[in-house]
Design a protein that fits this description.
This protein has 127 residues and is α+β, with helices and mostly antiparallel strands. It has one domain (2-125): 60s Ribosomal Protein L30, Chain: A (2-Layer Sandwich). The chain contains 2 helices and 6 strands. The chain has helices spanning 47-64, 85-95, and strands at residues 2-5, 20-23, 26-32, 72-79, 103-108, 118-125. The protein is globular, with a radius of gyration of 14 Å. This is Endoribonuclease L-PSP. GO terms for molecular function: deaminase activity. One of its GO terms (cellular component) is cytosol. It holds the Pfam family Ribonuc_L-PSP. Belongs to the RutC family.
């Protein structure tokens, strides 16, 4: 069983994809960039404000599927500048807590949509 997940508290998809797809007990959340859902624009400010917005966007998608960050089993972090890793990692650790943390990879990419500084996608498990 597949179900589209869409939250008004997260930015609308900027292409032909879903914010999230629930397949059985798994939710596959599309990569979120720091778009303000109200304006559709990248939030002003540095990497800290952009990272916070990304996590709020992910949280909205997770919550729409009755999940939260404790359900996340895997996360992928895309950075425009690997030098932002420590800052993003610090903010990441505010959202992912507990005994079993998600598997993760993080790496620098050549460019991200709308000149974002980061994008994060994740997979969550409801079981």
């Amino acid at each position: 069983m597949k179900k589209q997940i869409a939250s008004n508290a997260a930015p609308k998809a900027v292409g032909p994809y879903s914010q999230g797809v629930q397949a059985g007990d798994f939710l596959f959340a599309s990569g979120q960039i720091p778009l303000d859902p109200a304006t559709g624009e990248i939030v002003d400010g540095g990497i800290e404000l952009q990272a916070e917005r990304v996590f709020l966007n992910l949280q909205a998608v997770l919550n729409e599927a009755d999940l939260d960050f404790s359900n996340v089993v895997s996360a992928t972090v895309y950075l425009a500048d690997i030098n932002d890793f420590a800052t993003v990692n610090g903010i990441y650790s505010n959202y992912f807590t507990g005994e079993i943390l998600p598997a993760r990879c993080a790496f620098q990419v050549a460019a991200l949509p709308k000149q974002s500084k980061l994008e994060i996608s994740c997979v969550a498990y409801k079981g």
